[in-house]
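Morning. Coffee machine broken again, so started the prediction first thing and wrote up yesterday's gels while waiting. Chain of 410 residues, entered below exactly as on the submission form.
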Amino acid sequence: MAEIQIFRQRPGLRVGIAVVQTLFFTLLAVLLVSLFAYSLTASSPLLGKIKWDDAARFAVSFWMTLFGGTVRVGTGCLSLMPGTLTFLFVFFLAAKLRKTEIRSWADVVFAAAVSAFCVGVAGAASRIGGPWWTAPIGAALIGAGVVFCCGWKNLIGPYLRFSSLPRALLTCRRLLRGFWILCLFTLLLALFTHFGAVYALHGLYRQGIFGSVGLILLQLLYLPDLLISAGAWILGAGIAVGGASSSVFAQNIGLLPGIPVFALIPADHSNLWSLVFIPPVFFFLLGLFFSFRRPSAVSLRAEAESAALGGVLCALCVGVLGCVARGAIGPGRMGNVGVNSALCVGVFFVFAVLPFLLASVAAHPVCLKTLGTRCPKWLRPGKIKPKLPSVLRRRRKTDAEKTAEEESEP
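Came back before lunch.
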């Protein structure tokens, strides 16, 4: 009973255990899949003298790239983060910490230290080649970020009560959702228009049912990276594959590696000029939609401040996503694949944040009254109030309860 009581009183222990469990199970899953794939292809002459311990070492190496590590594979390097595995790690860690109350910054620091230590021990014990030491740093940042997001209400929530940051965070979340919708639309459009080329290139690698399924699953591991690259392409930041580059504005396409997903990059740029207007128009309409549904009591200055601050925060988040979707997947032309994160921040601010900010200001009741414009009935202000952070709502409720209790006391 004493151990259980200590365990309950120290949420830092639960944070550390949740981090260790998530790291262990993700590593175990990668190991099992790699060894299973090796068992199916162990008799292939292409593998040469590769043994079981070599397959296990490669599995650990691939697991290190989940946190941004760079490992040497043959004559090339592997550093592109498999976004699907990274997302699953973040999802399961957040699920384990859902019922844990993060009380102090010490829990965030402890999660970062545990993550870095575990990943560092795994890398040192496996004797991985290449600069894998970046993986513990990435694991520390990811672990600390997840814990902070799970406990931000207690960490910085009390300081947000009388600031414009809550509505800015709401704007940032809306812009991020719009960015992911734009990415998904672009990727589906590319898949629809270039499905024949992708299927033909995939057929060249077909080695039975297991080979086909394995190739598809391997590409799905980088699905978030593909989405981010699609969003960067249509925004104008472009994507790079070795010495080749392509964006909605211009392209310099040479010989691309023979990987099926690279067939999604359009070879003819002459008919793509109309796609340039999609991002600004989309985010302008998105800003109009949310602006007409804001509470009518929000002033023009507060709306402009929250939209601008939320746009800057979202642009920084897009820059972080751009860093995730850039790296190496092999030797030669595959040594530099992905997007330019700094350029992503700039084009996102110009083609997404500015139209959203313009729509938010133009659709404010003060501007509408000045212009003599009336909004539709189904978009009248105040119909649907935005969901502010729950810590603010709970704090108001708690203050009201305390006031009621004080008045009821004799």
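DSSP finds 15 helices and eight strands in the chain. Going to sketch it on the whiteboard this afternoon.
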